Amino acid sequence: MTRRRVVITGLGSVSSVGIGWPEMWGSLLAGKSGVGPIDHFDASKFDSRICARVKNFDPARWLDRKECKRVDRVSQFAIAAAELAREDGGLDFKQFDPNRVGVILGTGIGGIEEIESEHHVMLERGPDRMSPFTIPKLMANAMTGHLAIRFGLKGPNFVVGSACASSAHALALSGLLIRTGVVDMALSGGSEAAVTALALGGFCALRALSRRNDDPQTASRPFDKDRDGFVMGMSDRFVFLWPRDHNVAVGVPPATWDSLFSSELDRAFSLDPLPAAPENAVRFNGADKPIANPAFTTTAYIPSLIRISLSVTDTREQETRLFTRTFWIPTANPPVQ
């Protein structure tokens, strides 16, 4: 069977540095950080008191008043990003068989804001005062359901939950379904709105978060020798994927296209991969060599090629080791942005 090439058309983003990808991209090019003090609840007792919070987000732009009350923040972000992606790609779902359009998203925690809120209601006011929308709001797959109903999509519909890699896995699975002919289009990406007291406390207890509370703008520093942890944030990125032949037929220019993906688990400890993890991941994908060809790993070529974010919670040493071994970069200081 011929595997179809998959392209990405339509980008939607809700982030701490902008609503919509043009604003977000402009902020990134300008070196703008979205990290600042936590101000939507009292974080004074926590070791880490900073986050990358989405600001100036008005769900009423996409939802009516009743819907806003019945949809958790993580799903509100998802609906907004999906609409922005649809507008950006100029997509008309009437061009597709709705049974062959999937919605496959990723989230690490889902509706934890609703869990925390309703738990307080139950303890303080009793279980009979809880909202009947508690479960529909907190379910991780609530956002895929909302989007399928909103756009009339009837294809595969599910959420991937694999911690920091959730969105990457959702995108990869969407591409796989398109390449193998199961669907003709997929809305994919991820949504997270987990900056709550409960989640923050859990990550603080794990000692995984940066404590640069006095300098939040420089707290997020992957691969840096002085990195002291990551920074929690709210964010949402959605894209539409479809076969390249269809993309050409309808005359919509692709934003980019997919290439290599693999997923595997090798660990010596819950946060410490075994030394052979990169090589095993490449073999899982059917290749017999690391992802990057040594012929291309020159100082001039790599900076224009590599834009990577590794989902390793623990230390900078693991991030650098996994990256350099997988991409055949013979240096302790890979040019990563």
Tell me about this structure.
The chain has 337 residues and is an alpha+beta fold. The protein folds into 2 domains: 6-257, Thiolase/Chalcone synthase (Peroxisomal Thiolase, Chain A, domain 1); 267-326, no CATH class. Helix content is 34%, strand content 16%. The strands form 3 sheets. Strands 1, 2, 5, 6, 7, 8 and 9 form a 7-stranded mixed β-sheet that branches. A hairpin with a 2-residue loop joins strand 10 (267-269) and strand 11. Helix 3 (73-89) packs parallel to helix 6 (142-151) and helix 10 (277-284) packs across helix 12 (316-326). Mean pLDDT is 80; it is low at 282-309.
Superfamily (CATH H level) name of the largest domain: Thiolase/Chalcone synthase
Secondary-structure content class:
alpha+beta
CA-atom Rg in angstroms: 21 Å
**Could you say how many structural domains there are in total?**
2
Q: Give the beta-strand count.
A: 11
The level of helicity is 25-40%
CATH fold field value of the largest domain: Peroxisomal Thiolase, Chain A, domain 1
- Beta content: 15-25%
Going by CATH, the architecture of the largest domain would be 3-Layer(aba) Sandwich
Arithmetic mean pLDDT: 80
In the predicted model, the low-confidence regions spanning at least 5 consecutive residues are 282-309
Identify the overall geometry: globular
